[in-house]
Amino acid sequence: MKETLCVSCRHFAPALDPNIVQAFLGGCKKKEYPFTLLLPRPGVTECDVYQRSPKQTAGATREKRAAAATATASGGKRVELYYSSSHRAGDQFPCDIAAAKRLIGELRAKGVQAEERDLASTRDVFPVYHKAVTGPSAAMRAVFGMKGALEEDFGRRVPALLVFEGGRYPAEVFPRMDRELNRVVGVEEALQRLLAT
Questions:
Q1: Of the candidates 73, 101, 117, which is a domain's last residue?
Q2: Is residue 65 located within the same domain as residue 87?
Q3: Boundary (domain end) residue, out of 39, 73, 107
Q4: Separation CA 44–CA 25 (nearest Å)
Q5: Position with higher pLDDT, 143 vs 193
Q6: Is there a contact between 129 and 122 (Cβ–Cβ < 8 Å)?
């Protein structure tokens, strides 16, 4: 009950990082100075600064994030497509965004947790880029980090597909070099493979 009160408070700032939200709901903007007050998932302590927020979206957002965290913790497959509506995919790693979005929709219809994120107005892509280059094993690592697919290209000139299998970091990232096929496997091909399985 206390948790519900906290997420409906006008001073509540929900956690935005999907990894952080597994442990913390968010923080309190009113009590952030000189120390940040983090609100743990199991419950929230009584507070003397509580003021009901005119918006009631925080609770819904929290529930959506909690469901995503539960799916991830239970080992469910999760797919995230990163692209930019204001950039054209480069020639080195081409991608048909419309086809990729259609395939994401088909995955959703099959019950896979699949999201698409437009990075057109995102300034800092480093947190997601960092996951893409450090999370998977070397055999499953994406082309990111090499010429033509640097951090500034992530999701913009090089659309990216991150495939999670229950962990906080992706198990596979596309486009990537496939050692068995001896060629680059792109985003659309990866999505078609996921649909086939």
A1: 73
A2: no
A3: 73
A4: 9
A5: 193
A6: no
